[in-house]
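Entry 12.
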Amino acid sequence: MNSILYGVGNKFIQTNTFERNDLHNLDYTNQIRIRIELQGSDFTCPQYWDRQSNSYRTTKSITGTYEITTEIDDSELKSGMQPSMFGMNKHYNIFYINFHNIKDEIKTQRTSWGNLTSFLAKHIKSIVDTDTSMAAKKEDYENEVELATDKVLKNSQLSAFIDKIKENYSTNLRNNSCEVKFGLPDYEDIFLQMIFKVGLNGDNANLIPIDHFGDGYISMFVMAVIQAIAESNTDDRCLFLFEEPESFLHENHQEYFYKTVLCNLAEKGHQVIYTTHSDRMVDIFNTKSIIRIELEEQDKQTVVKYNNVGEFSPTMPTNSNGQEIISFANFNSYIKSVEPNLNKILFSRKVVLVEGPNDILAYKIAIEREVEKAHGDKKYAETYLSFLNIAFVVHHGKATAYLLIELCKHFGLDYFVINDWDFETDFVTDLANFQDENTLKQDNLYLKDGADDRSSNSKAMITTNWKLLNNSGIDKIHFNIPKLERVLGYQSDDKDSLGILNTVQKLIYYTETFLPTKLKEFLELDKLTNLTENVVETANSEVDTDELPF
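Predicted 3D structure (tokens):
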């Protein structure tokens, strides 16, 4: 969002106004480079000579590609924009609202609310100037205001005080004859200096200034102002930039707000760009409107993980074969597995896709114990997955797992799949070698179970497992053979979570068949172990080579 604000000229990078010394890891030498492409309508301007058309012109446009860069020159931060758009952005309606700060901004009349009210004042003035019925009432207003003011001030202490101001002012101007009046603003200005007051639940008697309300009510009021501007300002298209509009809204109201406000603005031809951490503020059935960014842990910078923004289209997200990942044809799977986990899919750094709740229980306990063993801190172990932004997602069936895998691929989200193999023998590697389903179905691995013909149920399970392997890749999937309970040594088939819990907690060591190396690497447990070993080696080295003189 900051890059967009700098790109459209809403913010400027200067020595005395730059709010952040550096946007990338606080590195003094790491400078900013922002490239932005803009399109805008023409606006009128004084006549000038246009070199490109080799003619005089009286219109300009912000349309073009701009590059903003910074550099350190003699210990001073300097910036530049090529080409310059100086003064051009004021001809366009660009509104930025940070909903975290809006309450303070209303009180101080500054920043985003100040910009909005400035435009609102111009808009109100335009309405007043073009409304013939209001213009006809101007003389009546002025006469009645003057009579009312004189009546209130007559023989009052305030009137005497104003006379003293007039007398002193006249003396200061060398006895210049002057007139000083104290009253309401002129007719043209009265509407610009009014303040908004609100009465809730039908209370018209006790109206309260809007800045006295809570953040949620204020946010809704600000959006009501924006909606009114957008609805009445049909000739001009606006650019709306919103910072986390879901702030201070309850979950159900977030979805209502998204559909009735944000979507409505876009449908009226305005461009709406906003940041969000809420899955209620996105449409998973139209992912072309989503840009997904993520903090890269190693380089400590934000990277784009998904950006497929094009012309607005109701098309469902598709896989590499052009098939729809999510559609109303598989709405049942969507409601069961995707919708409840949408927040995790969109906002996690990594996800582990598992078959059922017992898988989550077993693996979370195992991971927690492995982290505590390596790090020695129980609280850190309990929050390890949250700290790394790794989430577990239950797919409740292998058929739904395909859907979640494709969705993770679509959004550029790193994933790992854990499933039951459902066969006593391990032929995972052999199954992964088949390039296509037809070749598989002609092979004895599919046709025969030893000397006997495979049952149709057995063939279906092989096909399902092959599809999982093919979709995920053998490096991103682990099968518990034949199933989780047997791998853990829990002999019953009752799926009892308490029994699974007790079994996992009794294990001293987790074998490769349950917690494989590739899963440890995905969960970054190997980095944690290496880090601990390096710390121990360093400490031992310091003790062994202690050459201190005391």
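Annotation: The first helix runs from residue 2 to 7. Residues 1-89 form one domain.
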